[in-house]
Amino acid sequence: MTAKPKLHYTNGRGRMESIRWLLAAAGVEFEEEFIEKKEDLEKLRSDGVLLFQQVPMVEIDGMKMVQTRAILSYIAGKYNLYGKDLKERAWIDMYVEGTTDLMGMIMYLPFQAADTKEKNLALIIERATNRYFPVYEKALKDHGHDYLVGNKLSWADIHLLEAILMAEECKPDILSAFPLLQAFKGRISNIPTIKKFLQPGSQRKPPADEKFIAVVRKIF
């Protein structure tokens, strides 16, 4: 029996959350070993298991993988969530890079100083509604399929749903001008593996709170 992937990161979203999403959507059970203090991270570094001295790190298929993008690409390829050919893969990559940019802005918001938070929140909402979400709305409209690429569930869809839910935490009605994305959210949320991940008690992490922010600052 193959060992479950083991995820090494803090007990919060950060750069690991998209990896948790992708594994969960693929129906893959995984274990987590949380970094709770600076010494935990130093031990991983001194053990030589972090290629660039950074986490996330995922133990999978005999590898100790680092670099979020590399980990996600490997999981997407392994579990048939990365398109059927190079062209589809290119589209998935483009869509994923877009949602990654948006999620990066949201991810760093809680760590920012109070005087810049309001301005940055307004920027997130502006970018989501004018730069990112119109692209996905148009993609769904133009090809008339349920999914972004190749009429089959892919990493791009899973990533987009994660981004939508993060954006709704910033502004609950952020999808009000995007009916196709509203329908997409409902469809993808109801895929059994994803539905399970969205239930209370799953390995999905909540938004960063003050306690988590304090822990992160101490570790990194």
UniProtKB/TrEMBL annotation:
Among Gene3D superfamilies, the record links this protein to: 1.20.1050.10, Glutaredoxin (3.40.30.10)
Q: What is its EC number?
A: 2.5.1.18
Please identify the protein, giving its name as recorded: glutathione transferase
Family to which this protein belongs: Belongs to the GST superfamily. Alpha family.
Q: Which GO terms describe its molecular function?
A: glutathione transferase activity
Q: Which PROSITE patterns match?
A: GST_CTER (PS50405), GST_NTER (PS50404)
Q: Which InterPro entries match?
A: Glutathione-S-Trfase_C-like, Glutathione-S-Trfase_C_sf, Glutathione_S-Trfase, Glutathione_S-Trfase_N, GST_alpha, GST_C, GST_superfamily, Thioredoxin-like_sf
Which SUPFAM superfamilies does the record match to this protein? GST C-terminal domain-like, Thioredoxin-like
Residue stretches making up the GST C-terminal domain: 85-208
Record keywords, A-Z: Transferase
A Gene Ontology biological process in which this protein takes part is: glutathione metabolic process
Tell me which residues make up the GST N-terminal domain.
3-83
